[in-house]
Design brief:
The complex is a heterodimer of chains A (113) and B (136). Chain A is built from 4 helices and 5 strands. By secondary structure, chain A is an alpha/beta fold. Chain A has a 5-stranded mixed β-sheet, with helices on both faces. Chain A starts with a strand and ends with a helix. Chain B is α+β, with helices and mostly antiparallel strands and 136 residues long. In chain B, strands 1-2-3-5-4 form a 5-stranded antiparallel β-sheet, with helices on one face. Classes of the chains: A alpha/beta (113), B alpha+beta (136). At the A-B interface, helix 2 of A face helix 2 and helix 3 of B.
Chain lengths: 113, 136
């Protein structure tokens, strides 16, 4: 899995690309979120536009990251869900948990509302 | 094929499924979801069955019958597994759990999912996807 990280205002935008799967992408995603928290960034936007696969471990890590960030008083939201990743979030009913956006500007502004 | 209990081998098995599926002209969309189920079966066997032991292997059989079905068998050398103990990961009390969705994935993406005692003492997972049925 590849990733790019940037800060927009006080929001950490983490763009992921490839597979978020057991033993590789799942651990990397967790590490990126923990780094954000270590940097004092508690508003996190995960851009999933380039993600091709997310297995149950990847979904589990995503949920774990979501609850970790929430416990720190922050929030983690999702941006640009590819259709198959959206299907998986629908099937697992996690679509009801995450705030999901398809427009970055709207996603960023939602953190301040 | 027999694979060592390493997560990297999930990629190898999925690659073989995709090669076979394309030879049999199975739709990419269908292959994608079968691949996801295969990944979960292998992850289950490597992590929960063989507990990542380098001394234990995972045995995989993939059979594609064009126009009929794709069937997959994944067997580990672990100590067996009781799927009746699994909770529903979509129930509100489990929704925020960070694990427990692997079997749910398999059941969501395949038409049949069976857990049987393996010949080597572990668990054998049998997956069947009927072609031109269900999701595709």
């Amino acid at each position: 899995m590849k990733s790019t990280v940037r800060d927009v205002g006080n929001v950490r935008v983490i763009a992921l690309e490839g597979k978020i799967t057991i033993g590789a992408g799942d651990v990397q995603m967790r590490s990126l979120v923990e780094s954000a928290l270590a940097d004092g960034r508690t508003k996190i936007l995960l851009d999933l536009k380039g993600v091709s696969h997310i297995d149950s471990s990847g979904i589990g890590e995503m949920v774990g990251c979501y609850t970790t960030v929430a416990r720190r008083g922050g929030s983690m939201k999702l941006l640009n869900l590819p259709p198959k990743i959206n299907d998986i979030l629908q099937v697992t009913q996690l679509i009801t948990v995450f705030d999901v956006f398809d427009n970055e500007a709207e996603a960023l502004s939602s953190f301040s509302s | 094929m027999a694979l060592q209990s390493r997560y990297e081998n999930i990629e190898l098995a999925e690659h073989m499924l995709l090669e076979l599926g394309r030879e049999c002209r199975i739709e990419e969309e269908t292959l994608y979801w079968i691949g996801m189920a295969l990944r979960e079966a292998l992850a289950n066997a490597i992590k929960h069955g063989n507990k990542l032991s380098a001394a234990k292997r995972v045995f995989v059989e993939i059979c594609a019958e064009p126009g009929s079905e794709v069937s997959i068998r994944v067997e580990d050398e672990g100590e067996g597994f009781d799927p009746s103990q699994l909770e529903d990961p979509t129930s509100p009390r489990n929704l925020l759990r960070s694990s427990g969705r692997g079997v749910f994935y398999m059941r969501s993406f395949m038409d049949e999912v069976r857990f049987l005692p393996g010949e080597r003492g572990g668990t054998r997972i049998e997956l069947v996807k009927r072609l031109h049925a269900g999701r595709d």
